[in-house]
Amino acid sequence: MFITKSIIRGEKTTLSWEIDGQLGDGNIFFTAKRDYSLTGDRIIDILCASQYDSSANKTTITAQIATEDTQNIIYNVLVYDVTLIDSQAEETVLIRGNLNIKFDARTPYDQTPVDPEKYIPVKLSDFQDGEYIKAKEVNGTIEFIGYTSLRNGLFDIDIDGNLMPKEQVDFDDLYELDSNGDIMPRENI
Questions:
Q1: What string of pLDDT tens digits covers the 189 residues of the chain?
Q2: Hey, which residues does 97 pair with through a beta bridge?
Q3: Staple 145 to which of 67, 135, 169, 180, CB 3.0 to 4.6 Å?
Q4: Are 154 and 181 in contact (CB under 8 A)?
């Protein structure tokens, strides 16, 4: 079953679905991601409640969405599924769909200057291949540096907030770190 739902970013709401029959034992999760990639980040992952109506032979599933679950979402559309995970850790997808994110014009952050001491999380999965980002502060503005076609997980932020290559990195066969920690093509290619 494919169902499109809509929510407003940062607003507390309840999503609900109705399916035929009674579900088996287990936990039901509402999970939303940017896309259906195997290793994509779960942007929302909530344990759902369910209620069986024996007279109608239907189960209603509800997901309570809190303000903090959606207040920082920057995407217009997420994909989601509602999945039953039984006691044997077997997963059954009950419902799939698109989650449309609507934005309010007025936000709690209006007319608030960006504090250069705060960090803005950036993941390579936020960008398309071929895009470039920068990571440095210039006159109070944060710019990000990096190439997005490299694998996720190559960098960490150190205690001083600097973007640093990880000590133990599993690279493509095409790249390696030089003595300065810069990513360079391998010499033998």
A1: 899 999 999 889 999 999 999 998 899 999 999 988 888 889 999 999 999 999 999 999 999 999 989 888 888 899 999 999 998 899 999 999 999 999 877 766 666 655 544 555 555 555 555 444 445 565 655 555 544 333 345 555 566 666 666 554 444 555 666 777 677 766 644
A2: 80
A3: 135
A4: no
Tell the residue number behind the tokens 């250069």, with chain if given: 116
Based on the number of CB atoms within 10 Å of its own CB, is 175 exposed (0-12), middle (13-18) or buried (19 or more)? middle
Structural domains in the chain? Answer: 5-102 (2.60.40), 124-185 (no CATH)
Contact 99, 9 (CB under 8 A): no
DSSP β-ladder status, 27-33 and 42-47? antiparallel
Structure tokens at 146: 């990096």
Q: Facing residues of 47 across strands?
A: 29
Half-sphere exposure at residue 104, Cβ-oriented, CA atoms within 13 angstroms? 13
How far apart CA 125 and CA 34 sit, in angstroms, is 9
